Amino acid sequence: MATNVTQAPPAEKYAPTENHARVVDFEDTSTGLNSRKLLMWTFLGSDVMFFGAFIATYLVYRGRSLNGPYPSEILNIPVTSVSTFVLLMSSLAMVLGLYYVREGEKNKATLWILGVVLLGGVFIAFQVVEFRIFVIEGLTPKVNIFGTTFFILTGIHGAHVTIGVIWMAFLAHGSHTGRLRADNALDLEIAGLYWHFVDIVWIVIFTVIYLISANDGPPPGAELLHG
What we know:
mainly alpha, two-stranded antiparallel sheet, 2 strands
């Protein structure tokens, strides 16, 4: 006699909540991690070594410039502290933007992602003005070792921030138009990993160049070379 077999319904991808559907993240990979997220972590790992090499180079040649301007003569710690605070606040805006995307609140998500764009743009503006002032005061990549290592290290970081700002602008537009939603919030999460990494790298750069090197002047014996 035939027996009716009732097949269990497949597991739902969305777990409903009061106001929206929340995505349950299932990844059928050998690592159990999303492949795109793993790729971003791999890229960031290589970027750690990239920045690490430049920071190590700066430290090796720190205090060896025979010509000025020297860090003690040109660095403006209070102003750079403000720009650092602005960049750190952009990480908070990123966290809130991701939270509201996952909660399905499009307007708040768009607002906070635009906040990341604005704060990142302000940081870049600070850096452009700083570079211009330094050049006017005589510090260029060619004038001494400090100028070379400073402009290369901070310039590469600034390029990373610029890329991040452009990326966030596209995501803000996607949130506004509804293409960035709770079910594909991973797009913003991956961008957030990149943005938080850029912020952490700046903390290291700010500490090494602006705080540790703030009082660096001519090396011993430099006066004799110019005497």
